[in-house]
Structures are given as structure tokens and as C-alpha cells.
Amino acid sequence: MPTTSPISIGIGVLGYAGIAKAHLNALKKLPYIFWPSPVRFRLLGIGGRSLHGVEDAARRYGFEYGTTEWRRLTDDPRVGLFINCAPNDAHAEPCLAAAAHGKHLLCEKPLARDAREARRMWEGVQRSRIRHQVSYNYRFVPAVRLAREMIQAGDLGEIIHFRTRYTDDTLSDPATPHTWRQEKRRAGSGAVGDIASHVLDLARFLVGELKGVAGLSRIVVPRRPVAPGSRQTKPVDVEDVYAGVLEFTNRAMGTLEVSTFCLGRKNSLTFEVNGRRGSLCFNLERLNELEVFRAEPRGRRDRGFKTILVTDEDHPYGGAWWPPGHILGWEHAFVHQLSHLVKAIVGQEAVAPLAADFHDGYVNAVLCDALLEAAKRGKYVRLKPPQRRTDGNTA
């Protein structure tokens, strides 16, 4: 049932650097941006591999303790929400342990290294009366949310095409050191799980379920140095680039391209949706804007795409931050997704369908596996309809 006064919820976070900083920033901002907050956070424990690092992070963010043992977080009876920002190979066991202790979950993407592991996680959380969410944060960009609202309202008519590209240049230099992300045993996959998973989630969020996929992949740099400047190298056994074709159950067709070898691209996620009555385009590097084209009478001379600055009060999340025209940034989506999860925890919202839950994370893993299989076999891979949710994460 909805609550009218804040409840206290203890927080345990696994991870303190990289993407974890965005989640930690959200923990700090949410209580005063979405005021009055339905919860009051109690920052208890923060974990990681380095004792110095976790102790420093505990002081920096105001946690009671830092630990190098993740079980201290999952076993702490005071922790009510466990946020897992660890590498992919440390998602399953800590999350399942936390769920067994009745803790709500927010896990970084991809949910798991493959579909089998993701299914084990989804089935594990169903046995607990908890709320679970996967950090597909781009669902919470206001322009993306407006795009979904327009598509669902029928503004574009029947959807014919979905095309997307997510590229950066993080691995363009062959001297860039080897990390866990270049190791299948730890990461599960390369560009597919790391960045294609984001746009696959958006494909489902905006257009619908997928029927089948095909594609090609490549490892561009097969070995990388173990450390900056080192002559010793380690093999890379996951893909650097992928180009794919998507078929949706509603007959829409799509294309997907992901790469970590696009010089000059830093975090370039784009998508375009074409329907019988209109089209829309989005570019993450201009995340406050949504380009929209509507079929209009031929007599008009101003036909073409029009840019909507998605900051007005009647837009998604309008009025929560700044006056119209004062733009938001990448980090704000993490505040939005945490706010959504908090409302679900106190009974004011359902996690799905607006947020991705562990079922969505499992379906996403199935899609990632299918892309990899399609590239390996050189054949179209047909997908089975996803299993339905059976827990209380939906309305």
C-alpha cells in the first residue's frame, strides 16, 4: 500500500568506481530532488576489491563501513536495498544471496553473462517477495520516455522500421590494456553484452518483442597488453564489433550496429523509428532532444523533422529539476530509475513495464546469446516467445 511518511531503508552497494559513481550520485540526489521522498536512505555498507578503495569511498559518500567481502553486505540484516555495480561475473551470486535474505535489488546491466545465468537469477528472485530492477537507465531519459508515449499513442502509426547504432572509440588503440571486459569467462560477451544490450532493451521498450536475429561479429584486436606499456599480452576472446538484423513479432524490421572502434565517437547511441504516419530520431549525445516527423499535407512548405526540446513541464519528468529549456545530463536518468524503484518498494508503482526488471534482464540475455549464435553459425536465429512474469513486479 502507498505510504504517506518516509520509511527508512538501509543501502548496501557493491562497487565504488566507474558506473557505481552514477548510482551513488543518485542516492545523494533523490531525497531532495523528488521531495518529499517516500524513503529515507541509510547508507550502510559499500564493497569492492580494494580495502583502501572501499574505505575511502565509505568516507567520501558517507557509508558506515567499507568491505572487501560482498557477503557482509548481503548478510547485513539492516540492508534493505542491495545495489550491484560489480563486473558481470559478480552479478549472480551476490544478487541471489541478497534476494534470499529478502533484500530489494538494483543490478547493473547486463544482468548476467548468458541466458542460463540470467534465468537462474530471474527464477531466484521470484521465490522472494522483493522488488528487482536492472539498470537499463536509458529508459529514464525524458526524450526516450516521450518517444515511447508517442509510439504507444499511435502517433507514428504502424511501425515499419527500427534502426539503432551504439558506438564509441574506447578500444580503438591496440595499446589499450586488457580488462575483464575482454574476457568471456568474466564478461560473457564483448560489445554485445556491454552496449548492444542497451539498444536491444530500447528496441523492446519502444517497438516490442523480437522474433529473430541475424548478424556478423569480429574481434579486431586479438591480444592486448596486460598493463599500460607492458609487452606481455592476453588474448581477447569476445567480439569488438557487431552488425545485426532484427525481426519483431509485430512485423517491424530493424538493424543494429555496435562497435568500440569508431574514432571520434564517445557515447553515441542513436535510434530511429519509422511508422506509416511519422518517424522519430534520438541521439544520446543530444539527449534533451527528440526529432519528430509527422506526415503532413503536401501543400505545406515546412515539411521535415522538427526538434522537440524535451524539458517542458508537460514532458516526462518536466518540473522535477529545472525550468523549461534548462537541460538535463546523462546522470539524471539514474536518479529517475532509482526514484521509480523506490516507489515500487513502497507500493506506489510497479517496476515493469516502465523499468526493466530481472525478467527483462533475462529476455535481454536471450537476445544477446541469439546475436552471438547467429554470428557464429552465419544463420538467422529464431527466438521462442519469452516466458511471462509470475511475480509482483508488474502492475
Summed up:
The chain is built from ten helices and 17 strands.
SSE class: alpha/beta
Q: Span from first to last CA?
A: 13 Å
CATH topology heading of the largest domain: Dihydrodipicolinate Reductase, domain 2
Query: Strand tally, please?
Result: 17
What is the CATH class name of the largest domain? Alpha Beta
The biggest beta sheet is recorded as: 9 strands, mixed
Q: Specify the CATH homologous superfamily of the largest domain.
A: Dihydrodipicolinate Reductase, domain 2
- Into which percent range does the helicity of residues fall? 25-40%
Strand order of the largest sheet: 16-15-14-13-7-12-11-8-17
Features:
single chain, 395 residues, alpha/beta, Rossmann fold, Dihydrodipicolinate Reductase, domain 2, nine-stranded mixed β-sheet, 10 helices, 30% helix
Polypeptide structure, described:
The chain is an alpha/beta fold. The protein folds into 2 domains: 7-138, NAD(P)-binding Rossmann-like Domain (Rossmann fold); 142-286 and 288-328, Dihydrodipicolinate Reductase, domain 2, CATH 3.30.360.10. It is 30% helix and 25% strand. The strands form 3 sheets. Strands 16-15-14-13-7-12-11-8-17 form a 9-stranded mixed beta sheet, covered by helices on one side. A 6-stranded parallel beta sheet has the order 3-2-1-4-5-6, with helices on both faces. A hairpin with a 4-residue loop joins strand 11 and strand 12. Helix 5 runs antiparallel to helix 10 (358-377) and helix 8 (191-206) crosses helix 10 (358-377). The longest helix has 20 residues, at 358-377. The model has no long low-confidence stretch (mean pLDDT 95).
